[in-house]
Amino acid sequence: MSLEAIPYSIPYRRPLAFAIGEVREAAHVLLRIHTDDGIVGQADVLPRPYTYGETVGSILAAVHTLFAPVLVGRDPGNREMIDRLLDNTVANNTVKAAVDLALWDILGQELGVSCHRLLGGYTDRVRVSHMVGIGKPAEMAEEARRVHDDFGVTTFKVKVGRPEYRTDVEAVLRIRDALGDDVVLGLDANHGWTAEQATAALTAMEPAGVELIEEPCPSSEVLGRRRCIAGTRIPVYADESAPTLETVARAVTTDGFDGINIKTSRSGFTRSSRILGLCDGLGIGVLVGNQIDTQLGTLASVAFAAAHRHTAVRPAEVTNFLLIEDDLLTDPVRVVDGAIAVRPEPGLGIEIDEDKLDHYRTDR
Ligand code: MUC
Ligand code: MG
């Protein structure tokens, strides 16, 4: 087994803003694991410095200096052992996730079975939820309407968390007004509000009929956050504060979160499955989220979301790629009637357009 890590950058059609940052380009790393038999497992690695401290440079360094020495010469089917050995390095969760996804991709190709079927094969498509970035309230409502009309999407996650929270309240009420009662609205503050602002904003948004709020305030506000979670009728979900099994366990048993956002781009299939099992066992809500993935990452999220009963009941956040100007896949992912179908091909069904990769790679 050998590893290849290719940095690339694809521009966005327009930026996506959220409380703690903004993305303007998909500056990611394509991870390729080559087996001795010529199979290539592939996955995307996304640097999100504001949430996990990773950069393109740190991802390349982690692959080459920390993880390649563990993986080279090892049997790719030894996933649990590889998982244990990767844990000799703390953090770097998105790189570990990509290694895991690429190993599952290899396994699927070896067996001639899609990852979606290997994981559980519950259903063959997932309904999607679209993320509306922070902007002027009228523009946010316009974007939600366009995605609703063009793609049949009826679930939205609205980015909030501006300290001047009344603008967020206005945006959410406008989106509700523009789309009516048939759509489902969730929120994500990405830690942008203080606990007190979050409590005030959530109370003001109650008339909009919001189904959930993600990360209302910082985990550093230990008691304030607990009071905020206990004080709202809206279910509160953990995302970037609970990227691992142990942080999920703490979020639900100690901090009182009602649900967990599971992202395959930070916990792969193996660790996402453990997180899902924990949430299943505890009767906690789950949603499959998006780390602002390209279509490559979207294939993994869709395979996981559609594979399991608990994840398939709620629309998955898998439309961020619509913001990106182009993609590396030869066969683009399509949103049809508010849903994305799983790929039946072996493994993850990733086929890279090598000309596009040559064009967008940044290491030559
Ligand atoms: C989300 O749900 O928070 C924003 C930053 C990130 O890492 O993921 C996104 C979406
Ligand atoms: Mg989130």
TrEMBL record:
<dbReference type="InterPro" id="IPR034613">
    <property type="entry name" value="Muconate_cycloisomerase_anti"/>
</dbReference>
<dbReference type="Pfam" id="PF02746">
    <property type="entry name" value="MR_MLE_N"/>
</dbReference>
<dbReference type="Pfam" id="PF13378">
    <property type="entry name" value="MR_MLE_C"/>
</dbReference>
<dbReference type="InterPro" id="IPR036849">
    <property type="entry name" value="Enolase-like_C_sf"/>
</dbReference>
<keyword id="KW-0479">Metal-binding</keyword>
<dbReference type="InterPro" id="IPR018110">
    <property type="entry name" value="Mandel_Rmase/mucon_lact_enz_CS"/>
</dbReference>
<keyword id="KW-0413">Isomerase</keyword>
<protein>
    <submittedName>
        <fullName>L-alanine-DL-glutamate epimerase-like enolase superfamily enzyme</fullName>
    </submittedName>
</protein>
<feature type="domain" description="Mandelate racemase/muconate lactonizing enzyme C-terminal">
    <location>
        <begin position="137"/>
        <end position="235"/>
    </location>
</feature>
<comment type="similarity">
    <text>Belongs to the mandelate racemase/muconate lactonizing enzyme family.</text>
</comment>
<dbReference type="InterPro" id="IPR029017">
    <property type="entry name" value="Enolase-like_N"/>
</dbReference>
<dbReference type="InterPro" id="IPR013341">
    <property type="entry name" value="Mandelate_racemase_N_dom"/>
</dbReference>
<dbReference type="InterPro" id="IPR029065">
    <property type="entry name" value="Enolase_C-like"/>
</dbReference>
<dbReference type="InterPro" id="IPR013342">
    <property type="entry name" value="Mandelate_racemase_C"/>
</dbReference>
